[in-house]
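Saturday, quiet lab. Running sequence design on the structure tokens for the scaffold JK sent over.
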């Protein structure tokens, strides 16, 4: 890879760190879910990502290592994506000569990224759960606004391949369904099936963010 394009391909490092750190955190998580404190280890479809960031696991054991890994991965990924986006929007500005659209693109992703950082700062434990949920909702809502704007922009730029246009549109649809499930779906505290639905939706959403970012990097490297 061209060293001068580090501003783009460093995003692969951000994705890699997030995946590696969270995989390790899952293996090291002591146990417990929001409904059952007696489970052992991390249950992929019943434990939220945010459970990894709690300093005390749901089974009452100390969770320091997993918490550091999860919170660090979230901050690293946020910084990586912001660094990428500063350069990526310059590519878009060359074609989209709309000041207000560019301002909205920047502010919507900036709010989302800062909110994800604060998700790491305020864990989902009892003492900070309110602020944690405020920033979770703010992060994904502002990301939804950003993805709608991006859907419009990428279709307007002929240098961007059609696959990115399709990926952006699909990502926006997935994010919309995730918000619907998170806001209007059954409470994860209601039953094991409700928890399964909410946690699975979160896992699909996080995977979609990683995959979409990957294709954004690929496109930026191709057209830069």
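Result came back. Writing it out in full:
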């Amino acid at each position: 890879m061209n060293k001068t394009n580090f501003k783009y391909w460093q995003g692969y490092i951000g994705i890699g760190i997030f995946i590696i750190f969270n995989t390790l955190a899952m293996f090291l998580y002591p146990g417990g879910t929001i409904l059952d404190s007696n489970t052992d280890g991390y249950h992929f479809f019943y434990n939220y990502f945010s459970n990894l960031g709690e300093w005390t696991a749901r089974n009452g054991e100390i969770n320091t290592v997993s918490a550091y890994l999860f919170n660090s991965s979230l901050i690293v990924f946020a910084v990586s994506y912001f660094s990428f986006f500063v350069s990526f929007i310059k590519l878009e500005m060359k074609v989209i000569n709309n000041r207000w659209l560019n301002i909205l693109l920047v502010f919507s992703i900036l709010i989302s990224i800062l909110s994800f950082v604060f998700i790491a700062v305020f864990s989902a434990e009892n003492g900070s759960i309110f602020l944690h949920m405020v920033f979770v909702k703010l992060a994904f809502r502002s990301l939804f606004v950003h993805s709608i704007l991006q859907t419009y922009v990428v279709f307007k730029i002929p240098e961007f391949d059609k696959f990115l246009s399709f990926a952006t549109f699909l990502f926006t649809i997935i994010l919309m369904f995730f918000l619907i499930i998170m806001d209007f779906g059954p409470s994860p505290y209601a039953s094991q099936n409700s928890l399964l639905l909410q946690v699975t939706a979160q896992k699909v959403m996080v995977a979609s963010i990683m995959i979409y970012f990957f294709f954004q990097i690929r496109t930026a490297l191709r057209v830069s």
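Notes for JK: Residues 94 and 157 are 9 Å apart (CA to CA). Residues 7-223 form one domain. Ask whether to fix the surface positions before the next round.
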